[in-house]
C-alpha cells in the first residue's frame, strides 16, 4: 500500500461515471419505448439484453417456494435473524406526527405519512445480494409503505437467484418482476399493463440503471446514486495489523474502484499493515479485483497525532469508518462526517454490511458531508398543519397583511382582511 | 373560472421549464469561468448581468444598518415576531442522537450532526422576499449549521433591498454577498478568494439559478427545484365564497403559471366563487398576472360527495391545501398528499406564507406525493453507530461469515474470522 506521511489535503473522491452521451441517448430511447409500448417493450428488451424469453414478468408463488427449497435452511434462519435486526433498528428511526396547541386556539403540527408505493431495483448476476434486498426493502416496510415492488433482471435461465427471492419474501415483498436495466426503471416510473407505477425508486444498479433513475427523477423520487465503496480505518499503534488488513481487504474485494484507507499515528503499524495486506491478498478468491483496488486507491496516511488523524478523517468524509483507539467513543465525538462508524476491535465492517441492523446503503465519495444512510425518513413525507382560530387571526391578521404588502402581494393581504371586512 | 363536474383524473401538473440546451451551455460556461477566475469572474459577470460595478462583493455592517434605518420600525418588529414563530416551529423538528445498548454489550445508534456550511440564494428584483430569507435560513440555523452564507444579486444601485438585509440580520446570517445568477451558485459550490465553498445550496431562483444548482448537485447538496405555486381548496356548500375567492387569488397573483383550484360538492358554491373571483380580480394591482393564472390554471371541480373530493385532492397532491368543511380535522385524516394543510376559515393561506411558523418552501407540481416542506432534517445528516462486543461477535460471527460467503465475498468472511483465529 501507498504510505503517505506528509499529508496535504486528503481526499477519496474518485471521478464518478456519469455515462457517455451515447449511453444517455440509449437510456432515453428505452424509456420512450416502455412509455409507448408497455409490457411489449419490456418483453422485447428483456429478450434483447438478458437473452431470455419470458411468458410472464411476475415471479410466481412456485418460484418463491422453489427458492426456499433451494437454499440451506440454516442460511434462511440467518437471513430471518438479520431481517429482524434491521427491522428493529429502523423502527427506532420512525417518528410520529405531532401537534402543539396555543392559548389563542392556534394549532400547528407535522403529519407523517408513508409513501404510497416504492420500487426496489436489485441488480442481477454476481451483484445479486440478498443483503441489499433487506436493506432497501425494510426501511420502506417499517415506514408503512403499502406497496413495495421489486424488479431484478432474470438470468439466462429466466430466474432470479434463490437468495434474493428468499430475502424478498422475508422482507415482505408481495410483487416481484423479472425485468432489469433502464426498462425496469421506466416501468416503475411510468407503469405498464402489468406493473403499476410507483412514487419512489431505490436500489443500486449499473450505469444504465443510474442514468435511467436520473432521467425519471422529478416524475418520481429516487434515492442517491451510489458510488464505489470505501473504508477508512483510524487506528493508533496498539491495534492488530492483521485485523486491520483484513478489514481493508473486505472493502477492496468489492470493486476495482473501491477505496481502502488507514489513518494512523504509528509508522510501525503502517508498515505492518502494508505487509499484512500483501500477504492476505494472495489467498483471496477475488484477488484480482482487490489488488487493483489496493494499488489504485489503497492509502495509508501516517499522521503526527490522533487529533490530526481525526481531521484527516473529517476531510475524507468516508462511507465506512472504523475507530480503533484506546477510547473509541471519545474519538467518535470529534467525527463530523461519516456514513457509518464502527467502534472497537469487534466491530469489523462486515458486521454492519449484513447483520447488526443499521443500513448498509451509505453516502459515498465524500457525500457524507451532507448525506445520510438510507433510512425510514426517506420513505415518509411530512405535511405541515396550520389551524388558526378566529382570535389568533384577529390578533395577527394586520401583521400578516403588512408583510404581504411589503412584498407587493396585495391579494395576500386582502385574503386575510376579507375575513373581518364587516367589522372595521 | 373553468367549472368541471365530470372528473376524469384530476392533475395540476404543469410542464416544468427545464431550460434550453443553449441555457444549459451558458450556465456550464459561467461555472467554468468562476472555477477558473474566482472573484475576477464574479465581478465581471456581475457587471455583465446586473449592470453594476462593485468594489467589494461582501455586504458591510454599514449597509445592514442603513437597511434597518430604511425600514418602518413596526415592520422590523413584525419580521422579528415571524422569525420567532418560525424558529419555534422548526425547533420541534429537531431530533437528538440516540443510542441503544443490548445485554451482550452491543451498542447501536444514530448520531445527528448539522452540516458545516450552507448557502442560501435569494432572488433579486421584485422577487426579493424577506419571508423567503427567514424560511430558508432559520431551519439551517435551528439545525445548528455554523456557517450560513447568503447571496443575492445587487440592483442597479449596487444594493440589496432593505427588507431582505433586515430579515437576514434577524435570522442571524453573518456573511452576505452581492452576487446572483449561475455565478453565485458556482461560487457557493466551488469557492472563490472571497467566498468559501459550502456543503448545501438552498433557495429559489430563475432558470439559470435552477440549472446551475442541477449542474453542481453531487459536488454539493441542493434543495428541491421548486415549480410554480398552487393552492387547492376543499370546501363544502356552507363556506364563504368571497373568502375562498380571495384565497384563490392570493395564489394566482404569484405567477402566470400558478394554479388555483376549488374542489366542492356544491355547484351553487362553485358558481358563487367563480363570480367572486371575477369581481375581486378587477381591483388587484397584479390583475394581469392573476387573470392569466386563473384563466389557464384556475379550475373548480364539482364532485358528487366530499369523499370524492378527498380523492381528487389526493390525486392533485397540492402544495397548499385549505380544508373548509364542518369538521376539518376529520377531513384531514384522509389526506395523504399535501405540502401544507390549512384548517378552517381563519387559516387563510397567507398565514402560513409569512407568520404561523411552518415553512413556506413546499413541494409543488404533484411532488407532495413523495416530498416534504423544507425542514431541519435537510440541514443535518445521520451517521450510524455500531459497536459490537467480543461476546456479540463470538455469538454472531459465524452467521455473518455465512452470509458473506453466500454473496461470494470471502474477504468479508475472513475479516470476521481473523478476530478469533487462534481460538478455533
Automatic annotation (TrEMBL), chains A, B:
<keyword id="KW-0520">NAD</keyword>
<dbReference type="GO" id="GO:0000105">
    <property type="term" value="P:L-histidine biosynthetic process"/>
</dbReference>
<keyword id="KW-0862">Zinc</keyword>
<feature type="binding site">
    <location>
        <position position="254"/>
    </location>
    <ligand>
        <name>substrate</name>
    </ligand>
</feature>
<keyword id="KW-0028">Amino-acid biosynthesis</keyword>
<comment type="pathway">
    <text>Amino-acid biosynthesis; L-histidine biosynthesis; L-histidine from 5-phospho-alpha-D-ribose 1-diphosphate: step 9/9.</text>
</comment>
<feature type="binding site">
    <location>
        <position position="229"/>
    </location>
    <ligand>
        <name>substrate</name>
    </ligand>
</feature>
<comment type="similarity">
    <text>Belongs to the histidinol dehydrogenase family.</text>
</comment>
<dbReference type="InterPro" id="IPR016161">
    <property type="entry name" value="Ald_DH/histidinol_DH"/>
</dbReference>
<feature type="binding site">
    <location>
        <position position="251"/>
    </location>
    <ligand>
        <name>Zn(2+)</name>
    </ligand>
</feature>
<dbReference type="GO" id="GO:0004399">
    <property type="term" value="F:histidinol dehydrogenase activity"/>
</dbReference>
<comment type="function">
    <text>Catalyzes the sequential NAD-dependent oxidations of L-histidinol to L-histidinaldehyde and then to L-histidine.</text>
</comment>
<feature type="active site" description="Proton acceptor">
    <location>
        <position position="319"/>
    </location>
</feature>
<dbReference type="GO" id="GO:0005829">
    <property type="term" value="C:cytosol"/>
</dbReference>
<feature type="binding site">
    <location>
        <position position="407"/>
    </location>
    <ligand>
        <name>substrate</name>
    </ligand>
</feature>
<feature type="binding site">
    <location>
        <position position="412"/>
    </location>
    <ligand>
        <name>substrate</name>
    </ligand>
</feature>
<protein>
    <recommendedName>
        <fullName>Histidinol dehydrogenase</fullName>
        <ecNumber>1.1.1.23</ecNumber>
    </recommendedName>
</protein>
<keyword id="KW-0560">Oxidoreductase</keyword>
<feature type="binding site">
    <location>
        <position position="251"/>
    </location>
    <ligand>
        <name>substrate</name>
    </ligand>
</feature>
<feature type="active site" description="Proton acceptor">
    <location>
        <position position="320"/>
    </location>
</feature>
<dbReference type="Pfam" id="PF00815">
    <property type="entry name" value="Histidinol_dh"/>
</dbReference>
<feature type="binding site">
    <location>
        <position position="206"/>
    </location>
    <ligand>
        <name>NAD(+)</name>
    </ligand>
</feature>
<dbReference type="GO" id="GO:0008270">
    <property type="term" value="F:zinc ion binding"/>
</dbReference>
<keyword id="KW-0368">Histidine biosynthesis</keyword>
<dbReference type="InterPro" id="IPR012131">
    <property type="entry name" value="Hstdl_DH"/>
</dbReference>
<feature type="binding site">
    <location>
        <position position="121"/>
    </location>
    <ligand>
        <name>NAD(+)</name>
    </ligand>
</feature>
<dbReference type="InterPro" id="IPR022695">
    <property type="entry name" value="Histidinol_DH_monofunct"/>
</dbReference>
<dbReference type="GO" id="GO:0051287">
    <property type="term" value="F:NAD binding"/>
</dbReference>
<feature type="binding site">
    <location>
        <position position="320"/>
    </location>
    <ligand>
        <name>substrate</name>
    </ligand>
</feature>
<feature type="binding site">
    <location>
        <position position="183"/>
    </location>
    <ligand>
        <name>NAD(+)</name>
    </ligand>
</feature>
<feature type="binding site">
    <location>
        <position position="412"/>
    </location>
    <ligand>
        <name>Zn(2+)</name>
    </ligand>
</feature>
<feature type="binding site">
    <location>
        <position position="353"/>
    </location>
    <ligand>
        <name>substrate</name>
    </ligand>
</feature>
<feature type="binding site">
    <location>
        <position position="254"/>
    </location>
    <ligand>
        <name>Zn(2+)</name>
    </ligand>
</feature>
<keyword id="KW-0479">Metal-binding</keyword>
<feature type="binding site">
    <location>
        <position position="353"/>
    </location>
    <ligand>
        <name>Zn(2+)</name>
    </ligand>
</feature>
Amino acid at each position: 500500500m501507498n504510505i503517505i506521511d506528509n499529508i496535504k489535503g486528503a481526499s477519496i473522491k474518485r471521478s464518478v461515471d456519469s455515462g457517455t452521451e451515447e449511453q444517455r441517448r440509449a437510456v432515453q430511447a428505452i424509456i420512450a419505448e416502455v412509455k409507448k409500448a408497455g409490457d411489449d417493450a419490456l418483453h422485447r428488451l428483456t429478450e434483447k439484453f438478458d437473452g431470455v424469453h419470458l411468458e410472464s414478468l411476475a415471479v410466481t408463488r412456485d418460484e418463491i417456494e422453489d427458492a426456499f427449497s433451494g437454499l440451506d435452511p440454516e442460511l434462511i434462519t440467518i437471513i430471518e435473524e438479520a431481517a429482524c435486526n434491521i427491522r428493529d433498528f429502523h423502527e427506532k428511526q420512525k417518528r410520529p406526527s405531532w401537534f402543539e396547541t396555543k392559548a389563542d386556539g392556534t394549532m400547528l403540527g407535522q403529519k407523517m405519512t408513508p409513501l404510497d408505493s416504492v420500487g426496489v431495483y436489485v441488480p442481477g448476476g454476481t451483484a445479486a445480494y440478498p443483503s441489499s434486498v433487506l436493506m432497501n426493502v425494510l426501511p420502506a416496510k417499517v415506514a408503512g409503505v403499502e406497496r413495495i415492488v421489486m424488479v431484478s433482471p432474470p438470468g439466462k435461465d429466466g430466474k432470479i437467484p434463490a437468495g434474493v427471492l428468499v430475502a424478498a419474501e422475508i422482507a415482505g415483498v408481495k410483487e416481484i418482476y423479472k425485468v432489469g436495466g433502464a426498462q425496469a426503471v421506466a416501468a416503475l416510473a411510468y407503469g405498464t399493463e402489468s406493473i403499476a407505477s410507483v412514487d419512489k425508486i431505490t436500489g443500486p444498479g449499473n450505469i444504465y440503471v443510474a442514468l435511467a433513475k436520473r432521467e425519471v427523477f422529478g416524475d418520481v423520487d429516487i434515492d442517491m446514486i451510489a458510488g464505489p465503496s470505501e473504508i477508512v480505518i483510524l487506528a493508533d499503534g496498539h491495534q492488530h495489523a492483521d485485523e486491520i488488513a483484513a478489514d481493508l481487504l473486505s472493502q477492496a474485494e468489492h470493486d476495482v474502484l473501491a477505496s481502502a484507507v488507514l489513518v494512523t499515528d504509528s509508522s510501525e503499524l503502517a508498515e505492518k499493515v502494508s505487509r499484512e495486506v500483501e500477504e492476505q491478498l494472495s489467498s483471496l478468491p477475488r484477488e484480482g479485483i482487490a489488488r487493483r483496488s489496493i494499488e489504485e486507491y489503497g492509502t495509508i496516511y501516517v499522521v503526527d497525532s490522533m487529533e490530526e488523524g481525526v481531521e484527516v478523517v473529517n476531510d475524507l468524509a468516508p462511507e465506512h469508518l472504523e475507530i480503533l483507539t484506546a477510547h473509541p467513543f471519545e474519538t467518535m465525538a470529534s467525527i463530523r462526517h461519516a456514513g457509518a462508524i464502527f467502534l472497537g476491535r469487534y466491530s469489523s465492517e462486515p458486521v454492519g454490511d449484513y447483520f447488526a441492523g443499521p443500513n448498509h446503503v451509505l453516502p459515498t465519495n465524500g457525500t457524507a458531508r451532507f448525506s445520510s444512510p438510507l433510512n425510514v425518513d426517506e420513505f415518509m413525507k411530512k405535511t405541515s398543519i396550520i389551524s388558526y382560530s378566529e382570535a389568533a387571526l384577529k390578533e395577527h391578521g394586520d401583521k400578516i397583511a403588512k408583510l404581504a404588502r411589503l412584498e407587493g402581494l396585495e391579494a395576500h393581504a386582502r385574503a386575510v382582511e376579507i375575513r373581518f371586512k364587516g367589522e372595521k
